Amino acid sequence: MRTETADALLRAVLPPWAVGAARADDVPGPLFASERALCEGAGPRREGEFTTGRWCAHRALVRLGEPPAAVGRGPRGEPLWPPGILGSITHCPGFRAAALCRAGRARALGIDAEVDAPLPARVRDRLISADEAGRMRPEVAGERLLFSAKEAAYKACSALVGDGRAPRLADLRILVEPGRQGPGASGRFRVRVPDTTGLVDLDGRHFQGRWKRSHGLVLTSCVIVRPGAEAATPTAGGPGTEVSTARG
Question: How do residues 11-57 score in pLDDT, each as one tens digit?
C-alpha cells in the first residue's frame, strides 16, 4: 500500500478539523533523542511500530501547522502531546497512523486500526455482547468492527478520565450505522457508556464515531466533541490544554 493510500484511508475516518498521517511500512526515523530512549531494548517489531508511529505523529503535527516535536509516553503508555494538542496513535500489521487536532476543537480523540479478520472466540465472547452482535448487519462488517470501535472509544474516554475510571471495553456499547456499502465500505457508529464511570455527563450525542473497511483493514475513530465544535476546521495556533489518549 502506498503512503498516499494509507493517508487517504485515515482521512476517511477523521472529522474535517482533525489531521493525520499514516504508513503501511516501517521507517527508521528520525526520532528525537527522548523518543529513541523510550524504545531502547525493544525488539525489531515493537521498535518498528513505535518509530513509525512517532514518524506519523511528527508529520501530523506539521500538517496541523506545528513544528515536529517529541511525543513522550505517559505512565499508562499513552502518547504525551505538545500543549494545546490532543491525539492518538495506532498500529496493526501493515498499518501505522497518528491523528491530531487542537484541544479546543474536541474533548478527546481516539483512533484504531485492525486487520479485517474474525475475532478470536475468547475475545469475542469477553468483549462483544449478544445484543451488539445481533444488531450488526453482516453486509456492513462484523465483530472486528465492533472491537475496533470499542478500542477507539476507549482511547477517547481514557483521555478524559484515565484508565482507572474509563469504561471497560466490554461495557462500551456500540451501534454501527450502515453507510456506504461494497468495497471501501464506510459509515458512522454510536457509543453508549455506562452510568457508573466518570463520564456521567456524556451521552450518545457527545460521541462521533466513524469507520471504514478497505484494503484488508478496519479503521475507526471516536471523537468526544465540545458543544458547537462539530463544524470547526483546523487552523494553526490557538489556545488549548494538553490531552492525551492511551495505548499509543
Answer: 999 999 999 999 999 998 899 999 999 988 889 999 999 999 999 99
Distance CA 116, CA 203 (A): 29
C-alpha cell at 60: 501530523
Pairing of strands 207-214, 186-192: antiparallel
Residues near 69 by Cβ (< 8 Å), separated by ≥ 6? 32, 58, 61, 82
Tell me: pLDDT of 163 over 90: no
Taking the C-alpha atoms of residue 152 and residue 209, their distance in angstroms, rounded to an integer, is 8
117 and 193 assigned to the same domain: yes
With 60 as the cut, is the pLDDT of residue 248 above it?
no
Domain boundary among 53, 80, 110: 110
Last residue of a domain, one of 62, 85, 110: 110
33: containing domain: 3-110
Spatial contact of 169 and 150, defined as CB atoms under 8 Å apart: yes
Amino acid occupying residue 206:
H
The number of residues making up the chain comes to 248
Q: 513544528: which residue's cell?
A: 67
Beta-strand pair 217-225/207-214:
antiparallel
Give me the residues paired with residue 79 across strands: 73
Q: What is the CATH number of the domain that holds 160?
A: 3.90.470
For residues 116 and 68, what is the distance between their CA atoms, to the nearest angstrom? 32
pLDDT attached to residue 242 = 28
